[in-house]
Task: inverse folding
């Protein structure tokens, strides 16, 4: 019986050794680029592939820099300048110019109530860029004003439409960055603001 146990232990060790060998082979094949493609049922010898020579795509540039660094730097500066000019041209082509934004003075704003929903000017608060224009269009039947300042502090003197009759409009171009409050002098509950970036 002792002989059978020794044989079983030996056989088990052999199987484990074979398993470890296959695991090591698989790991080596994966890491070293070995390829074994059996085409028959006979065992085949595994032949490692020749490692592929890797070429440095920048080797010729490095050689050129070593030979004449000033010339290479001049070429690089020319390319950078050309790229910069291209970017500038494309930006100028597609850069938005000054724009005009419309703000409505809605119908019914001559009676208090629009201030509760901040709808006396639509939109009541607008964000624009320096150089842009805001056009206020009166779609109400009553006359309104667009006066820089606030009801509490009075007119700022920056802009004032005077009376804008129903169906008429008033425009102002904001050249300087800042925040500009405005209101209607006839109906002081009507307030709005323009933020200029």
Result:
């Amino acid at each position: 019986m002792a002989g059978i146990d020794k044989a079983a232990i030996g056989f088990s060790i052999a199987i484990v050794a074979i398993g470890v060998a296959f695991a090591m082979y698989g790991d080596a094949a994966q890491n070293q680029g070995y390829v074994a493609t059996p085409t028959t049922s006979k065992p085949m010898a595994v032949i490692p592939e020749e490692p592929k020579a890797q070429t440095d795509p920048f080797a010729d540039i490095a050689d050129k820099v070593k030979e004449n660094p000033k010339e290479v730097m001049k070429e690089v500066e020319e390319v950078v300048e050309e790229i910069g000019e291209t970017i500038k041209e494309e930006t100028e082509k597609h850069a938005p110019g000054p724009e005009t934004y419309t703000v409505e003075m809605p119908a019914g704003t001559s009676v208090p109530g629009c201030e509760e929903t901040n709808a006396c000017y639509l939109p009541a608060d607008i964000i624009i860029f320096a150089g842009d224009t805001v056009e206020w269009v009166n779609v109400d039947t009553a006359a309104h004003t667009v006066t820089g300042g606030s009801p509490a502090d009075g007119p700022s003197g920056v802009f004032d439409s005077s009376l804008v009759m129903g169906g008429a409009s008033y425009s102002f171009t904001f050249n300087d960055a800042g925040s500009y409050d405005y209101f209607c002098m006839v109906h002081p509950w009507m307030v709005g603001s323009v933020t200029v970036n």
About this structure: The mean pLDDT is 80. The beta strands are 100-105, 125-128, 133-138, 147-150, 154-160, 169-173, 178-183, 191-196.
